[in-house]
Write the C-alpha cells for this entry.
Amino acid sequence: MEEEEPKKRNIRPKETSRLPLITLLSLLAIIVALFVIGWEYISDDAKGSDEVTNTVPDTTSKYIPPDIRDEPEDIGNETEDTSLPDNVGSAVAVQDPPAPVVEKPKPEPKPTPKPANVGGKEITHTVASGETFFGIANRYNLSTETLRSLNPQLTNTSTDLKAGVTKLNVRVQAVHTVGPGDVLRVVAKKYNISKQQLMEANGKSRDYAERGEKLVIPFGVRK
C-alpha cells in the first residue's frame, strides 16, 4: 500500500511591504519643505533688518506740530488766558446775576438868575462886621432877589458873607460928589429920597458931609 504524501499547507506568498518606505519618504519631503520655507523666511527678516539699519535718517526736515502748522501766525497779539486758577475746582459754582444798578436821578442844576436890570450905577460893597444879606439889600433899598441876582457867585447868602473879605455888587441911583452948600438934606431932596435913606446908604450916624466926599444915592423905591 502506498504511503500518502503529506498535504502541503497553504503557504502565504511573501509580500514586500512598501508602505513604511513611502511614509518615510513623505515625512522626509515634508521636513525638507519646512526647512526650505523657514530658511526663506529667516532670509527675508535679515534683509529687512539690514534695510532698516542702513537707512540714513533725514535731519534736514523739521517736524512741525499740527497745532502750530495749522494755525495762522499771530505776531504781537496776546491771547487771553481763559484757564481757571489752581485753587478753583472742576465744579464751578453758578453765581446769581448781579442786581441791576438803578441810577438815582441827578438833581437838575438851579438856573443862574440873570442880573436884574434896575438901571442906575453899579458899585462894590465890602461886607462889614455884623452885616447880613438882608440888611445890605435894605440899606440900598433893594429886594433880596435883586441883590442875589446881582451876585450869582453866592451859593449860601448866610454863610458866604465874610467881614472884610466878601465884596458884593450893588446897584444905586447915583454917586454924588459933595460941593459947596451940599448938606445932606439938600442932596436927598435933589434925588427925591429922604435924608434918613441917604444917611443909611452911606453909613452915617450924624447929619454931616465933607466937601469933595462921594455920597451913594440909593433908589427912592425898592428895586
About this structure: DSSP finds six helices and four strands in the chain.
